[in-house]
Amino acid sequence: MAVDPDPFFVTFRDRDSGRGVPLITLELANGIRSVTDSAGTAAFSDPAFLGREVFVAVSGPGYRYPEQHGGRPGLILTPLAGARMELFVERIQPAERLYRITGQGIYRDSLAAGLTAPIRKPQWNAGVVGQDSAIALPYRGRIIWFWGDTLGAAADNLHVTGAVSALPGPYSNPAAAGATMPAAEVGSPAVGIDLDYFEDERGFVKPLCPFPGPGRIWLDWVVALTDPNGGEQLLARYSRVIGLDQVAEQGFALFDDAACEFRRLRHWPAPPGASHRVDHPLLVTAGTRRYFLFTARFGFRLVPADLGSLLDSECRESFGPVFESASADGGAPSAGPSGGTLHRWRKGVPAADFDHQQQLIAAGRLSPDQAWLRPTDFETGEPIAIYPGSIAWNAWLRRWVLIAQGNLGEVWFGCADSPVGPWVYCRKIADHDRYTFYNPVHHPFFDQDGGRTIFFEGTFTNWFTDSVPKVPRYDYNQILYRLRLDRPELVLPVPVYRRRCRGGKASACRTLTEPAPAHRAEPIGGIAFFALPENRPGAGLVPVYAHPDGLRPGTSEAPQPPSAPRHPPLFWALPADPPGLDQAVTGPWRCEAHTDDGRRLPFSFRLDAASRTPRLSFEEPFLKAVKVTVSNRRLRLDLDFFGGRYRLEADLNSRGMHGRWRSEETGEAGTWDGVRVDLIGLQLRSPALVPLFEYRFSDSRPPIYSTHPDLAAAGARRSERPLCRVWRNPLPRFLPDLELRPAASNQDPDQADSS
Questions:
Q1: pLDDT, tens digit, for every residue of 104-161?
Q2: Measured between alpha carbons, how far is 609 from 486 in angstroms, rounded to an integer?
Q3: Spatial strand order in the sheet of 142-147
Q4: Where are the beta strands (DSSP E) in 70-185?
Q5: What is the SS3 assignment for 593?
Q6: Are 380 and 351 in contact (CB under 8 A)?
Q7: How far lies 166's CA from each of 128, 195, 476, 552, in Å?
Q8: Predicted confidence band of residue 676 (pLDDT cuts 50, 70, 90)
């Protein structure tokens, strides 16, 4: 009987971080596929291909392989039995994929290659094959985890699964960690999560909500409360679901730590139209009182942080616009003290979520400029439909951060001064091609470097997609990502507010770098515009300072104007005049060439057009620039591609390059485009950029700053030239609740109340 030879192993590493990349697919010409495990390793074991020269196509969501063969990313290699090979891929999205948290065979191929896994149970843990939608929170000195439906090899648990793990700290097995990832990450959540599941007598995960009745049980949310003895107890709200969308029952349950399961506290038949929504409540303070803030689908609800209030629907307050009339036509929205639409917390009304806002606009009860939610793609300036996976305070940004779910496999990032907003400019941070990635959640207890690095996970599956095959072992499981907030793509505009002066008039500006205590809070008269945060400088940006006589911009060359006080800028902006051609195109570029038959070739280069002779250097070793010309807002590039000569031409504008390419030898042709990917290049592409003008009065009134070139202000004279360029405010009548502050348990207590 023939014995199969040892497999051939390939490990793909992230070119920037050096760690293995999960979910990279290697495909042979006959369609046989291998997928890298959580350490980035994949095994080839088909003896027919061992020892033969083969082409291997390489793909993976959010990453690209830099080499091409026949127009497809990949390489030709000769796999040998028992041999190992390491290759590098480039990340083309801000979020870095780390590992699969749940399921079977998390480090399957790495173990077969003789590597040591960084977790205790890398192959099989409590019989879990797949798990849906995580809820996790610190509890009694550990992290406690809950999931929805859990798939096993022979049976499923549809009544909630749970586990515990250690809080971040010194890692217990640094030698194992170093075997599969950089040693600098030892002690980090990036290493791995050792889950200790609550198991039954068979060794399979036990049902934590064994409530009698049909259907499945899903947890809506879980919070940690102080029990009568001063300790901690867990309260959950649950839904009983028939099929996948009919909610038949809802209720509350308390966790029994001795039995390791929930005990039903109250339950009731679900009202018509009830839905299940996963939520991750925030612990916040307003004044001297602590509350839980619920944020599912931007339907903000505030409840005092005690058991009695959570069980009593009369204690809940919802945030939204206030209308003058409840008649059939609804009347007009009430005006707030700053002249905008009045938004406030009210009892006895349902939460006005994003869908409800859109319905009000469609019905004519609300105009678009009276909205309170306007998520916008920073790249395109277009409104986007996203829903919070989670919102959390971030100590490094000194603002609230949003991890949100978009279309199919999209994950979005945003930041705001209040957990209720304004949620405006957002950036897509991860995509999963045609796969679904839903219910993403940021885990603040994993934050590192003072909040500079955050971690989020979500459910990866082929559900809700058309004709997309399952990815073995990954499908219907949780994948963890790391996001470094100091990346240039994540420098997003934040509000600059009008400060209300004596007499109630709004004039000078201020920003919020943190929630201000009530005794130091300054009256705010509304949002004037958006600008870049005061702590995110960058080459080519202009600092703007608060001066007793008004705003004073510096320059890129001399950031601190002589008349400005010696303190940090109020905000950063773009110069008043668009950059010249040399400045606009000098920097790193990410490009892609397209053929008529749909093939794509990604490539990157750095262009220096400021010197007398333009210079261009490619990142890809198989590309070489022969001649570069930049003139009349047009780039002409002659290059060598695997010995063949090609000419690329493109028109240049603030949003990038677009043009055509042609082979000088074969005549083959197509299109190509590119975008500049450094900080200033990312900002220049924004279609929401507008000039900021100063309006001065002849008397002692302070100046007004506006993005309107013809502001109707009696007695005011506009400056001839704008001060700088900032970002449009698409929510002119919205003022968020700026009194909500992070409570100590949401982050390091030393950082929560340092305002």
A1: 999 999 999 999 999 999 999 999 999 999 999 999 999 999 999 999 999 999 999 9
A2: 27
A3: 134-139, 142-147, 161-166, 196-197
A4: 72-77, 84-91, 96-100, 128-131, 134-139, 142-147, 150-152, 156-157, 161-166
A5: strand
A6: no
A7: 20, 8, 24, 50
A8: confident
Strand partners, 706: 693
Q: Which residue has the tokens 């010194």?
A: 170
Q: Which of 74, 82, 12 is nearest to 44 (CA)?
A: 82
What is the tens place of the pLDDT at every residue in 214-226? 999 999 999 999 9
Q: CB-based contacts of 136: which residues, under 8 Å, 6+ apart?
A: 143, 144, 145, 146, 441, 443, 445
478: which strand partners?
A: 459
Closest CA to 238 of 206, 214, 259, 268: 268
Residues 338-379 pLDDT 10s: 555 678 899 988 888 888 888 888 988 888 888 889 999 999
Contact 384, 427 (CB under 8 A): no
For residue 754, the tally of other CB atoms under 10 A from its CB is 10
Residue 719 and residue 398: Cα distance in Å, rounded?
33
Tell me the C-alpha distance between 113 and 179, whole Å. 12
Q: Encode burial over 91-117: b for 16+ CB neighbours within 10 A, e otherwise.
A: bebbbbbbbbbbbbbbbbbbbbbebbb
Least confident of 166-170, 458-462, 721-725: 166-170
667: left (phi over 0), alpha (psi -120 to 50) or beta: left
Whether the CB-CB separation of 468 and 433 falls below 8 Å is answered with no
Domains and CATH numbers, the chain: 8-92 (2.60.40.1120), 581-677 (2.40.128.120)
Q: Give the 3-state secondary structure of residue 439.
A: strand
Q: What is the mean pLDDT of the chain?
A: 87
Instruction: Please report where in the chains the tokens 């879990």 appear, as a residue.
Output: 128
CA neighbor of 163 nearest in space, from 192, 183, 185, 134? 134
Alpha-carbon distance of 17 to 4, in angstroms, equals: 35
522 pLDDT above the threshold of 70:
no
